[in-house]
Design brief:
The chain has about 180 residues and is of the alpha/beta class. The chain has six helices and seven strands. The longest helix is centred in the N-terminal third of the chain and has 17 residues.
């Protein structure tokens, strides 16, 4: 009996707080729809500084293909896809393409994470406002942007075919 009371008092709150509410789920789904609707539109203006001190704006990517991967350091799917994403960077290292990885994690957390994992994208830390401005609430989220700054593809989440879809989009844009 004592054991059951312990479970009810101490574990029930843990499980009830860990599950998203119906309203939270609705908001995430609505945000995903908004992000998908961005396909075919101009990628929003930005100025971002990487953890290495490089500052980028939209103008820096004119004439180049841009792949933007929104992620964070405790996102399991984000971590799972990183080795494949690093392969993508290596595969296209001699092309007119930039791989950018904004995260809402602060720089200290990102640097600590990078001592344990390799991630070869240009990493931009502490950009929560940028993530929210683009309605990114599901991670990872990938934007593939053409040489004119138009969003050609949006991939939300990680699944078996994510890398295949990214490669296909990148190849198509690099040929055009």
């Amino acid at each position: 009996m004592r054991y059951n009371i312990f479970l009810i008092i101490f574990l029930l709150p843990v499980f009830s707080f860990s599950q998203p509410t119906a309203e939270q789920m609705r908001q995430v789904e609505e945000a995903k729809k908004e992000v998908r609707r961005m396909k075919g539109s101009k990628f929003p203006e930005f100025e971002l500084t990487t953890i290495d001190g490089k500052t980028y704006t939209n103008k820096d990517f004119e004439g180049k293909v841009l792949v933007v991967n929104f992620w964070f350091s405790s996102c399991k799917p984000c971590i799972v896809e990183m080795p494949e994403m690093n392969e993508l960077v290596e595969e296209y290292k001699n092309e007119e393409i930039v791989f950018l990885a904004p995260t809402f994690d602060d720089e200290e957390r990102v640097r600590k994470f990078l001592t344990r994992r390799d991630f070869d994208y240009e990493i931009v830390a502490d950009v929560k406002d940028f993530c929210l401005a683009l309605n990114v609430r599901s991670y990872p989220t990938h934007f593939v942007i053409n040489r004119e700054g138009i969003i050609e593809r949006v991939i939300i989440g990680y699944y078996f075919g994510t890398m295949k879809a990214l490669r296909k989009s990148v190849r198509k844009l690099l040929k055009s």
